[in-house]
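FAQ

Q: What does a record look like?
A: Structure on top, sequence underneath. For example:
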């Protein structure tokens, strides 16, 4: 990165290592603010082309122009990691940002969820996404913009519908999974398949086994299922679905560990700045002022924050945890937890009261009413939007002999209602690539059973 010496990057790296931070090399690049907005919206420097990213870009741009957001940096974990810094940041800003990025790099290399997912996806995410974009551009040349966009509409409408507990490279349903039996149990049975007088009986039983339904159990990984089992999908269409799924796997740890990760990076940038004796005094003072703005509970000049600032919440938990139990204890939690365990286990009633966290009800007329501050309800209010990658839990329940696809919204599990109009659009998107009837069972706004079907308006 040009001008590294102005940001004390190498000195910061040495200091971070002296405190036990362990990270892959990070490639820093200074870019214009417009590019920062693009990479923040697209999620990656180069990504598959789709109109939805343009809509997100306009929203982010409006927010920035209205003073509601400023992007100091965008970080991509990997080996190497990548960090983009805005060229309108001051030297003070970028000194803090470099320290912050090193905290992120330590987290992503050592947190178990990040490690597991990156092992499957690969460490060079930027190259992978660029390859996906290149292949989609080739598909556009061969099949036309409109056709490819229809497939992307369907795939990106389902980008949150993956099953992180399954392998990225999972195979189609096998006999043992279809039967719902323990594979070790199958091995035990096979030991006796060749006993005298038993072989014919075993073969006879196998011949009489009925066809196993597809799926053999409710399937949450919608991107995978459609790519594997859509009756009339072309290979290039399946490739797009699997590319979207691969990128969704990469982004899941960022989403599931946001509070932990931002808090960890904020704790370490603050500590590194405090210990950085090589920094000029005036730069240190200005950097710590920026730190206070980053981890403040409120937005702008408002006196009350109605949304959780993950930097503030995460920093506050880590700061108290390290003060009480030491860095090594905190590192063991950082390595093994995600936000679900972290918030439930570490945010207690005393800290929630100190941070003035509460559950509130916002009415259409602008009235705000505090409704609850019981700690378990606070946990669920913070974590509820994170459940199931932030999406309603929908499973494939049946694929008919004619290829008809049945889905079910498991509202009793996620406790979340559906925007019926939007849900109907998603069903129609799926139908475009499934090319057979598609239906989904759910509940309407009044709690009554409702079914969305292809070609029909939402109830």
């Amino acid at each position: 990165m040009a001008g590294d010496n102005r940001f004390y990057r190498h000195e910061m790296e040495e200091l971070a290592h002296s405190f036990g931070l362990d990270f892959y090399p990070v490639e820093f690049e200074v870019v214009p603010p417009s590019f920062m907005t693009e990479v923040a919206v697209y999620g990656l420097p180069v990504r598959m082309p789709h109109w939805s990213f343009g809509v997100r870009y306009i929203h982010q741009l409006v927010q920035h122009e209205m003073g509601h957001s400023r992007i100091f940096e965008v970080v991509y974990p990997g080996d190497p990691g990548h960090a983009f810094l805005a060229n309108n940041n001051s030297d003070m800003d970028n000194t803090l940002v470099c320290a912050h990025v090193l905290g992120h790099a330590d987290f992503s290399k050592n947190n178990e969820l990040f490690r597991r997912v990156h092992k499957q996806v690969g460490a060079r995410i930027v190259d992978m996404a660029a390859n996906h974009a290149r292949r989609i551009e080739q598909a556009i040349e061969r099949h036309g913009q409109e056709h490819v966009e229809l497939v992307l509409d369907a795939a990106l409408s389902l980008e949150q519908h993956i099953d992180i507990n399954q392998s990225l490279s999972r195979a189609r349903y096998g006999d043992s999974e279809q039967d719902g039996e323990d594979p070790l149990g199958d091995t035990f049975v096979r030991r006796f398949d060749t006993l005298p007088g038993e072989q014919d009986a075993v073969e006879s039983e196998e011949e009489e086994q009925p066809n196993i339904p597809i799926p053999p159990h409710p399937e949450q990984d919608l991107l995978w299922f459609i790519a594997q089992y859509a009756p009339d999908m072309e290979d290039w269409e399946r490739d797009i679905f699997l590319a979207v799924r691969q990128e969704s796997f990469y982004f899941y740890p960022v989403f599931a560990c946001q509070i932990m990760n931002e808090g960890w990076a904020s704790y370490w940038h603050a500590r590194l700045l405090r210990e950085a004796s090589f920094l000029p005094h005036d730069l240190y003072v200005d950097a710590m002022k920026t730190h206070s703005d980053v981890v403040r509970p409120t937005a702008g000049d408002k006196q009350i924050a109605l949304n959780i600032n993950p930097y503030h919440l995460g920093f506050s938990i880590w700061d108290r945890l390290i003060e009480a139990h030491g860095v090594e204890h905190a590192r063991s939690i950082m390595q093994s937890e995600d936000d679900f365990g972290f918030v439930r286990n570490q945010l207690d009633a005393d800290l929630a009261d100190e941070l003035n966290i509460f559950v509130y009800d916002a009415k259409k007329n602008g009235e705000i009413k505090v409704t609850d501050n019981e700690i378990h309800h606070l946990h669920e209010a913070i974590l509820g939007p994170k459940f199931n990658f932030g999406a309603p839990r929908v499973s494939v329940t049946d694929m008919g002999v004619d290829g008809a696809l049945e889905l079910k919204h498991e509202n009793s599990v996620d406790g979340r209602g559906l925007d019926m109009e939007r849900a109907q659009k998603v069903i129609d998107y799926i139908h475009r690539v499934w090319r057979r009837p598609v239906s989904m069972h759910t509940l309407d706004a009044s709690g009554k059973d409702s079914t969305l079907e292809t070609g029909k308006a939402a109830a």
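Q: Is there anything notable about this one?
A: The CA atoms of residues 45 and 432 lie 29 Å apart.
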